[in-house]
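To whoever picks this up:

The nightly regression suite flagged MTX1 protein as changed. Nothing in the input moved, so I suspect the structure step. Input below, exactly as stored in the fixture:
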Amino acid sequence: QLYRDARECLTLLSQRLGSQKFFFGDSPASLDAFVFSRLAPLLKAKLPNGKLQQHLKSLQNLCNYCTSILSLYFPWDGGETRPQPHPVGSGAPRAAGADGGEAEEDPHKRRNQLLSMLVGLVAMLGYAFLSGIVSIQRGGGGGVRPAGRQPIALEEEEEEE
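Regenerated output under the current build:
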């Protein structure tokens, strides 16, 4: 059922986008950022079960939409233009291939992974706080507390036992 709903959602997004560059015309809006943040990992990641990914790849306008945003805003990651390799002897990390050729290795891969994890953690915590799943209550005096949440003083606790 979950896969069917996800496939239907992708199909509806494809129909809504149509042949436009972005969902609301020629310039991106917050909806574009939200949709791209969901579609790009689905399109680019290696997944154990690729049914949903294959469906997305069959929706050519959504693939073009992701590729367009990647090349426009992340040219070093998804577009055709790649950063030029560092000159030999500049201390840039390189990996030698098995055939003796040099393969370019991302020197900032670890940093990017950590930043991605940090952004994800902040997003999850922000959602938890904003949705009320997690809340911070300050201790201290004078504040009105909801019924049933009165702190128990140490003496009262000992008397109850």
